[in-house]
Amino acid sequence: MSGIEDPHMELREALRALCAEFPDEYHRKHDQHATYPEEFLEALTSAGWLAAMIPEEFGGSGLGLTEASIVMEEINRSGGNAGHCHGQMYNMGTLLRGGSDEQKARWLPKIATGELRLQSMAVTEPTTGTDTTKLKTTAVKKGDKYVVNGQKVWISRVQHSELMLLLARTTPLDQVKKKSDGLSVFMVDVKEAIGNGLTVNPIRNMVNHETNELFFDNLEIPEENLIGEEGKGFKIILGGLNAERTLIAAECIGDARWFIDKVSAYVKERIVFDRPIGMNQGVQFPIARAHVNTEAADLMRFEACRMFDAGVNPGAQANMAKMLAADASWEAANACIQFHGGFGFAAEYDVERKFRETRLYQVAPISTNLILSYVAEHVLGLPRSF
Ligand SMILES: Cc1cc2nc3c(=O)[nH]c(=O)nc-3n(C[C@H](O)[C@H](O)[C@H](O)COP(=O)(O)OP(=O)(O)OC[C@H]3O[C@@H](n4cnc5c(N)ncnc54)[C@H](O)[C@@H]3O)c2cc1C
Fold it and tell me: Domain Acyl-CoA oxidase/dehydrogenase middle spans what residues (predicted)?
């Protein structure tokens, strides 16, 4: 740190005190049994942290993405995994910006108390992947309802959420001027939907990340659950996606700092050839490089937060922050596992668990290639490649 006081120190200390009650063994046990850390989530909810972005008039603390990102960073820095709860933060952005006053009054106070969880967002589909505007799930208006048919994949936390945002096509692709038109966002009451047109099949995966395949078979959604204008959902969801990318950048920074602290402590203690391995520059440099890249990524993360909180769309900054932070955490993860030697592979050191967890962010919520192509086309004005 530069010596200038961190303006968020009080917030960080509060989070650190809460996270300290859930040590590495706690997260390791849930990882090994592929179970959901309910007690941890409960503690975060009762302390109000998962309602950080809800305005005070609706029972939240009215904080910005900046503070929300610090909550996520500190969870990962403590050895935990904010992937169990980050959905609530970025979905909040979609509801806050796209929802009507009536919708906010209906859902936000209950989300603030923890009575309802808004942890899920269903965008990705198995046959279209990153080509989001080609998604095939349809929502057809019939009377005062929309009838949804289609399939989604990799939809996280559905089994631990009462509410889910859904992106579906309301006007066929061949009838819209712009391919991003004709998509709409809906709020799905998950408990009501399961067994009434929604089937949820869990996907076992490399990390302890509760994620699922969803099948929609004539699921009826009341028209009052349409978020924002029909056909304009892509823009609404993009606001949420920029918040998501920024929050995940913060999580990667938390991971990177966890790896750097862990490996720095280890290499000072581990004696090989009669001296600490940390005396070798071949060991120091990869750790130092990961630190440099983490600090640089952190600046871009705070820039994306600053813009989002000022009501400006941080498209470029959110994407760049996510890529820089995911690369820094992956670099730190590699240094950490490498210099732990064989012990890096032992579950009790937690390095292999965090290594698996941080690897996800090279692919999700958006892969590095797609970020580079966004920057090339939308920031640098290079020719469109697809
Ligand atoms: C654990 C987990 C949790 C997830 N949670 C959610 C969730 O809650 N909600 C949700 O909607 N989605 C979720 N996802 C989905 C995630 O956002 C996607 O996996 C990710 O966006 C990549 O899409 P894809 O898997 O379809 O890959 P694809 O689009 O098939 O791409 C595969 C690879 O090809 C590369 N590629 C594709 N096109 C190009 C191109 N034009 N140029 C260069 N390279 C290209 C990509 O970089 C990528 O590496 C989750 C995924 C995982 C693994």
Answer: 120-218
Q: What is the phi/psi pair of residue 235, to 5°?
A: -65, -40
- Please state the atom number of ligand 1 nearest to the C-alpha of residue 167: 11
**CB-count exposure of residue 271 (10 Å: 0-12, 13-18, 19+):** exposed
Q: Is 373 in the pocket of ligand 1 (CB under 6 A)?
A: yes
Give the burial class of 126: count Cβ atoms within 10 A of its Cβ; 0-12 exposed, 13-18 middle, 19 or more buried.
exposed
Choosing from 31, 86, 89, 130 the residue with most ligand 1 atoms within 8 A of its CB, the one to mutate for a pocket test is 130
What is the Å distance from ligand 1's center to 217 Cα? Answer: 24
**Tens-digit pLDDT profile for the chain (386 aa)?**
557 899 999 999 999 999 999 999 999 999 999 999 999 999 999 999 999 999 999 999 999 999 999 999 999 999 999 999 999 888 988 999 899 999 999 999 999 999 999 999 999 999 999 999 999 999 999 999 999 999 999 999 999 999 999 999 999 999 999 999 999 999 999 999 999 999 999 999 999 999 999 999 999 999 999 999 999 999 999 888 999 999 999 999 999 999 999 999 999 999 999 999 999 999 999 999 999 999 999 999 999 999 999 999 999 999 999 999 999 999 999 999 999 999 999 999 999 999 999 999 999 999 999 999 999 999 999 999 99
For ligand 1, atom 17, which residue shows the shortest CA distance? 365
**Residue of 154, 184, 165 lying closest to 121 (CA atoms):** 165
Tell me how many helices (H) and strands (E) the chain has: 12, 10
Domains, the chain, ordered by start? 9-113 (1.10.540.10), 120-232 (2.40.110.10), 235-379 (1.20.140.10)
Its pTM stands at 0.97
